[in-house]
Model the fold of this input.
Amino acid sequence: MKKWLIVSTLLLLLAASFAGCAKNNKEKVYVYNWGEYMDPEVRVMFEKETGIEVVYDEFEQNEEMFPKVEAGAVRYDVVCPSDYMIQKMIDEGLLAELNYDNIPNIKNIDPVYLKSAEEFDPGNKYSVPYCWGTLGILYNKTMVDEPIDSWGAIFDEKYSGDILMIDSVRDAFGIALTYLGYDLNSTSVTELEEAKALLKAQYPLVQAYVVDQVRDKMIGGEAALGVIYSGEAIYTKRENSDLEYVVPKEGSNVWIDAWVIPKNCRNKENAEAFINYMCDPEIALKNFEYITYSTPNKAAREMITDPDIKDSPVAFPDESVLNRCKTYRYLGAEIETLYNDKWNEAKME
Amino acid sequence: MKDVTQVNKPAKRLNGEAGHHSLKIKKTTWLSMPYLLWMAGFIILPLILIVYYGITTEDGAATIKNLLLISDPINRRALLLALELSLISTIICLLLAYPLALILNKIKMKSNSFIVMIIILPMWMNFLLRTIAWQNILERTGVLNKLLSFLGIGPLNIINTPGAIILGMVYNFLPFMVLPIYNVLIKIDRDIINAARDLGANSMQTFIKIILPLSLPGIISGITMVFVPALTTFVISTILGGSKIVLIGNVIEQQFRLGNRNEGSGLSLVLMIFILISMAIVSKYDKESEGSSIW
Amino acid sequence: MVKRLFERFYVAIILLFLYAPILILIVLSFNSSKSRSKWGGFTLHWYQELFKNEEIMNALYTTLIIALLSALIATIIGTAAAIAINGMKKTPRTILMAITNIPMLNADIVTGISLMLVFIAMRFALGFVSVLIAHITFNIPYVILSVMPKLKQLNPHTFEAALDLGASPSYAFFKVILPDIFPGVISGFFLAFTMSLDDFVITHFTKAPGINTLSTKIYTEVRKGIKPEIYALSTLMFITVLLLLIFINRRSADKKPAVKRPGSNPGMADKRI
Done:
């Protein structure tokens, strides 16, 4: 019996010492990013090159990220929210101003995107664009009998049970409002009520409400139509050639996800070093090839070798598409709650 | 019925009696100190905090608003649906598990640990993965439908329906029903059954009058172990329900995910009360076991 | 005869039900396509990739360390507590057992959240230690409930006899009591280990970024599609345990079957009763 005790004590000590080893006092940077939104190799390369350890965490929705950063239970150094959320974070005073002396690679970012980023971050004081894209419909050519070019398709009873709707409040309302001919940043209660009615009528037609899961389901031919971010289109099409991505004619949302540094970060220099590294053309290209979301990095885009991708209308849509797309704006806490409540109501039988 | 069970009782009581006096050394009390401290810090204190957050606002003022959230149509529906689905799953588990436990008991392998391990073994494959695998099986283009279409039967629409969630619950929690029942059954004294047979009881009578009552503690324990996790799950409903079906577990998880600590605590509190009530009802049928049961 | 055939058939059906998803996962580990919904041909590629994937190996390591440590600590605290509780009078014993039942009776989600609230309120940084504490907390009851029945079967006089014969209490404990309750202790340990291994919900709420167990790692991947390396890892783990089980069973079958094996988990039955 004693032997057993000795063995277990030894094991315990051994394990404890291992656990201790993992926690040495290395320089660290806490990164909070979207799921599958970076080539994991890039993190390893960053660690090797700078000696700063990356502690990486992922979220699925802007709305999930915000309270975590706000509460500060975990203090992140770098976060990657979308446009309207960045605006909200600026409004609430959660973000630290960037020191561009530490981010010389900003020169690689196409000024076009810096300019559009000014819509939510005037003067580009708080954010550096990481990826951008549109919101659209991914459809399976073998499962629809007409070319899809309208949001109407995902509200069409013909496709009942074949629709994968996006489970994200702003995107869902953005679509409904646009389809009804309203502004996707509408704050009008009557317009929102109308949009909610449309979404509620859609409930029985929807197979599932998903965000990231839409990928696998569309590849597997589970549904005919899925609402998806443009960045997923290249990957899914590669896996299943029957799939096609379209930005509906009524218009849609164009979004930018950008790096920001929360005020309660642990180490601002490390954070800036990380952002700078992400703007390196080689790294941006590596990330683009892995996640296939459009990069605002001009130098990286020029390095893309495959002409089909370099000039892909999905990854880099032309003016005519972008002209009918709008960005979301932060509408204030009150309207935000209204959106959330209406969305919960819409998703109920 | 009474007569037969009573044969067993004196023996049991004797055992219990012996237990009472065993180790009657007061010196052992200090051994419970680490556990007492642990309980105070990590069982009692967390409960107090849930209660505190549940009945206060973000500013710390007392309120019952968070508790009343349950009357909101969305939340009420989520709770009722969760109750319904977990109840159905528990019943299905019981109906599947009891015959299985009886058969396993009859087979009498060389070591009963092998049987137990066969039932536990799937748990070594992560439960999220196993649930995702069900997605692969149940999907429209999934394994099951491919099999069915091979047999010439039309595709079944199971995924993202309440049926899929029930299936996920039954699958995940079935071992928790089988094992307690099996463990009670193997302890039933063969002599009692043989005695009943000698006295002229047929197999049906033996089952109803002897085996069933004696296995009741196992059934009760199984019901608890299936019902509680099924009632509160948010993972199974997310993966197999396609977010179309919202259960109370999803609502609570969402509240905390969106940073609404007080609202989440309030709903958790209501859920706890529901579980306590259910358990109180169940334990009424569990007079056999010692008082140390589920309150 | 027909009845017997039917019984075998029934067991087979249930086992098929329990093992079908596992079969699917094993098949997926050989799928060359990254997407779980498409069969891209047979490959062993993911088994090679697995050992290169630092994140998954880290998660595996954390999972095993936490399972081992939490099971060990819970076994020590729990066994001591069981002995103490068993020696108590009825009232304190009943109260303690009732509290012991709380974590098992409570929803995982409530246990996890309430622990998270405590850590945050105490300004205790979430991380490896908070997950470990949480796992020990939900493991202790399994140990107590596994050891308790063995203590009840104990003949109280042997201990006293040992003392009368001049043994010190600790000597008597190790020589007399522990051997008798050992099967219960071991089964409590294994039960705790398995529960820790399979837990997702409680870890989910008490962990911090940078710390991942296999469960939480998988959960972040559920949405975008599980990495095939995970299937490969699970297959390996499953096969290992299966072989181990068959090996143990062979050996115990060769020996005398009377020895109670750890797996017979009296705790499972006595839980919550």
Summary: Chain B touches chain A through 17 residues (CB under 8 Å).
